[in-house]
Specification:
4-stranded mixed beta sheet; 35% helix
Length: 126
């Protein structure tokens, strides 16, 4: 049994059973080369065909002790993300760009709140 997964069919791993729920922050941070005009097109693609996108999403994590998670958009093909809505606070083209966005978020948070509680700074009412 070397490297064999039983009980799963390959096509089941990549089927979109239902449209994913992705909530975008009204104060969304964009990486290099992305803008608000791209959001509608990107959101549709992320919800229906995540394997065809190559973006990094900055999301508010479910774990209350974390501030922000970086997630490759290709992970959205996993069934878990079809059942759990995401709260996206930033979109980047690369991992390095995502790190730059987190630095920008932290600087903005420090300027406004005088602390580095990103989760509270980025939180919004959905």
């Amino acid at each position: 049994m070397h490297g064999v997964i039983t009980g799963l069919k390959v096509k089941d791993l990549f089927l979109v059973r239902k449209k994913r729920t992705i909530d975008f922050s009204p104060n969304l941070y964009y990486g290099e080369g992305l803008g608000s005009e791209d959001l509608e097109k990107l959101s549709e693609k992320l919800c229906t065909k995540p394997l065809l996108t190559n973006l990094f999403l900055l999301i508010l994590p479910e774990n209350p002790s974390d501030q922000v998670d970086i997630l490759s958009s290709r992970y959205l093909a996993q069934p878990f993300y079809g059942e759990h809505p995401l709260k996206v606070v930033g979109i980047a083209n690369s991992h390095e760009d995502a790190i730059s966005l987190i630095i920008q978020m932290t600087e903005d948070c420090l300027a406004v709140r005088k602390d580095c509680l990103l989760r509270e700074f980025l939180q919004w009412q959905s």
